[in-house]
Amino acid sequence: MNHSDELGTKPIAQLIREQATPAAIGILVLSIYGIVDTIFVGRWIGSLAIGAITVVLPITFLIASIGMAIGVGGASIISRALGADEEDKAMLAFGNQVSMTLALALLFVFIGSFFQNEVLRLFGAQGDILPYAQAYFQVILYGIPFLAFAMMSNNVIRAEGAPKIAMMIMVVPAVVNVVLDPILIVGLGWGMKGAAWATTLSYIASASFGMWYFFRGDSELRILLKNMVLRWTIVKEIFLIGGVTFARQGSISLLAIVLNNSLFAYGGELSVSVYGIINRVMMFANFPVLGITQGFLPIAGYNFGAKKWGRVKEVIYKSVGYGTVLALGIFTIIMFGAKPIASVFTTDENLIAQTGPALITVFFATPLLAIQLLGAAYYQAIGKPLPALLLTMLKQGIFLIPLIILLPRYFGLTGIWFAFPIADVLTAVVNFIFLKSAVEQLNTQKTTA
Description:
Strand content: under 5%
Shape: globular
């Protein structure tokens, strides 16, 4: 039995554990190295360096999200094709993914390099933050094509039912980064360039591991030249489904532009650094629910392709239930440990004092996180790009950005922080309505299992 066949036969609860646990561990390790990076930068370079990373990361991940988007779009095709026993289509989708990822990533890197200063200023690199951001961005650009390939590979490997290998694609760069940070930042005294080179080399290591997996022969998929010739029908479907992920990252990057500039306007450089810490904590704290969401995608996609409607409903119910319980645990930890958490990243008392209350406010609606994420994930998994796009854009694009523009006019810096939980609640309500509708539609289908 192939790995993918198990997605349609094993008990759903067991599949969620098997798929979500490695995904969650991968996200956890990825977020840990982000945290370690920020700790080294904050303690050995300073609070302005945290602000610089806060500015640069949305730019690099916007470019790298090309690979993630192509990965998600192709993975949806691959999951459904394997579920329907269409191996040739799965292989063709994979080959097209490789070509698209490398071509588009290199194009965007060229654009980012040519308009470097303009891009940095657009994303909020103002005042004393700019020189630090320039030093970091110049090096990071070299690693982005590798990151794009790694993100694409991660989604594809998970789609064929090998979550532990997918986890390793995220673990490898984390280990490399954690090892190199103290050597390059502290030992060699390279400062921001040291942090940037540690991250860039970790991206290269991640992509190399993904390439090794596909070439060593354990994968059901192969990188074949004949499949790398772009086929319009495949490219179109990848863009339609993967465009949801790219739109989400695009909205996150647009949010970063609005947020960083608003924070600078209402609170100065220090407020940008406050959000830098919050963002790192957010990546770390939400890893269990993000893992369930990643694990949910191939299970729902495969069983939908196999027309096993009962199993699709079961994975929706159980993923929402498990995710909500985990989100409540995250909420409790943040509410009682905000200030100690902030003090891990910096010795700057003023930065710690501002970060604690802001952290509590931003995380206030965390118990609703699972519903927020799984609504869009379901429609991505079943290949319905329009509702997936709408649900993906809700928080950042439709609710949060307007709230960040509006609320500070009346409540100052506090209004920016309160925009987050308000957007979370509104997003969860809409996702709940869509998920409820999806379950009702599944109830009308004749199940095969």
